[in-house]
Design brief:
single chain; 230 residues; alpha/beta; 6 helices; elongated; binds zinc ion; transferase; ATP-binding; P-loop_NTPase; kinase; DNA synthesis
Length: 230
């Protein structure tokens, strides 16, 4: 596409603001909306940060929606392991996120927890919301599954996001190295095959997840005394 065509395709609101200096107030609408993806293994504080970010934006008088999928509470709610919680909209596969947001009066931002479990189409919808509706989207999730293979939605976020940020809030492997990858543990052994999404760490489940460093994820060594809670 030529530069000329690109210029013609730009809607009015994208025109650069000319009367601006370092000291003038930033006119509303002058800043492009952003798509940001925060990723890390479980327990790295993703949901806690999602809740904190929602609180901060809300205090500034901005209006947002909070979305999640397969949260550990089992309901449409974001819960963090340190005990915070918030009602959220459950993102089922058939949910059109553009329609969801445009059905509301005015939305300034979206908090998308567990975005790794959304469909790829829904990630495209998030990018549309940023580019065509000027809505800031803050997505949180795992990058890779229990095999250390990237989730399709996470991959699309890596490809499309304005900013990608790895969260590393002191999650350590049993050996003391930084915990980078989630392992799925079934019956005390690290699983290498199976469905990409299996909810574990619930009372009824024989599946649990453990954060490991890359070395021990690849070797399958779960450490001493870590194969208890099933
Ligand atoms: Zn390790």
């Amino acid at each position: 596409m030529s530069h000329e065509v690109m210029e013609q395709a730009k809607p009015l609101s994208w025109r650069p603001v000319t009367q601006s200096s370092a000291l003038s107030a930033v006119p509303s609408g002058a800043r492009d909306a952003v798509l940001k993806f925060y990723f890390g293994p479980m327990d790295c504080g993703k949901s806690t940060l999602a809740l904190q970010m929602n609180y901060n934006h809300g205090r500034q008088g901005r209006r947002g929606l909070v979305l999640t999928k397969h949260d550990r509470s089992g309901g449409p709610k974001i819960t963090s392991r340190i005990g915070l919680g918030l009602e959220a909209i459950e993102v089922v596969d058939s949910l059109d996120l553009v329609r969801l947001v445009t059905a509301h009066d005015r939305i300034d931002y979206l908090i998308c927890d567990e975005a790794c479990f959304y469909t790829v189409e829904q990630i495209e919808q998030l990018a549309d919301l940023v580019d065509e509706h000027g809505i800031d989207v803050y997505a949180f999730g795992l990058a890779s599954d229990f095999r250390s293979v990237m989730f399709p939605a996470a991959q699309r976020l890596f490809e499309l996001a304005d900013e990608v940020c790895r969260l590393q809030v002191e999650v350590l492997c049993w050996c003391g190295r930084p915990g980078l990858l989630n392992a799925r543990v079934v019956g005390g052994t690290l699983a290498r095959t199976g469905e990409q999404v299996v909810i574990g760490d619930t009372d009824a489940s024989a599946v649990r997840y453990q954060v490991l460093c890359r070395r021990h994820h690849r070797s399958g060594h779960l450490g001493e005394g870590t194969s208890q809670a099933v």
